[in-house]
Amino acid sequence: MIVYRRAHQADPELERVFFGEMLALPYSFGYAVRSSLALMYALTDDLDACRWEFDALAASGFADLRRDEHWLAALGVLSEVTIRLGDRARAAQLFELLKPYARLVCVHDLLRSISTTVASSLGDLAALLDRQEEAVAYFEQAIAQETAMGIALPLLDSYASYCRFLSLRGRPVDQRRAEKMLAQTEARAAALGVLRYRYSDSLVGR
Predict the structure, then answer these.
(1) What is the C-alpha separation between 166 and 173, in angstroms, rounded?
(2) Which of the four, 10, 70, 107, 165, has the lowest number of CB atoms within 10 Å?
(3) Which residues are within 8 A (CB) of 103 and not within 5 positions of it... i.e. 6 or more apart?
(4) Which residues, including other chains, have CB under 8 Å from residue 198's CB and lie 6 or more apart?
(5) How far apart are CA 158 and CA 141, in angstroms?
(6) What angle, rounded to 10 degrees, do the helices at 30-43 and 71-85 form?
């Protein structure tokens, strides 16, 4: 749902079903849907609502989130929420939770969906925590992994995240690389018909 929402225009009926009817169902994926809802609020600039949902999910250091088939995918979503809120304390918690799974992919078996690689999320979190060498290593791992798997949208997001990191780091060599990477990212997005991707609203040159 989040991958679709980021890449395309809003679909009110789809959002009503996903965040309304599905959230009301008596199943274990409530926290996963709420994680996506928090990110949806962030993507639509409703940061107060985003913070409210996020704080509820993070209240126990994410310990209350059931470790089932939704857990890894939900933590991938919550990592992006953390970045968008600039919450370094929660970023540190998520980094430690995800680090043992750095070679895995955030997949939801029931929905048959792939949202991102864990390495991509770890790159974002490391960047926020100013762990720059780790950020570089994780972003490059994510891009290599997603390229090998042929998963186009997560790869586009990882390129955008890496581009954002290089731009914010601010070194002249990073700026040149970020500009080149931005052009490549925009070309990939255009080829896929994607309107938006991770942090596309805050990348250098946009």
Answers:
(1) 9
(2) 10
(3) 118, 119, 145
(4) 6, 80, 156, 157, 160, 161
(5) 10
(6) 30
The label of the residue with tokens 């720059």 reads 132
Q: Any idea where the domains of the chain sit in the sequence?
A: 2-149
**pLDDT tens figures, 35-73:** 888 988 888 888 999 999 999 999 999 998 888 888 998
For residue 30 the two structure tokens come to 């409530």
Please name every residue paired with 107 in a beta bridge, in sequence order, or none if there are none: 114
Question: Tell me, what's the pLDDT at 139?
Answer: 97
Alpha carbon distance 23, 33 (integer Å): 6
Backbone phi, psi, residue 8, to 5°: -130, 180
Smallest CA-to-CA distance from 62 within 84, 39, 34 is with: 34
Residues listed for the chain: 206
- 197, 109, 75, 204 alpha-carbon torsion, rounded to 10°: -10
Close Cβ partners of 197 (under 8 Å, ≥ 6 residues apart) = 6, 7, 153, 156, 157, 160, 185, 189
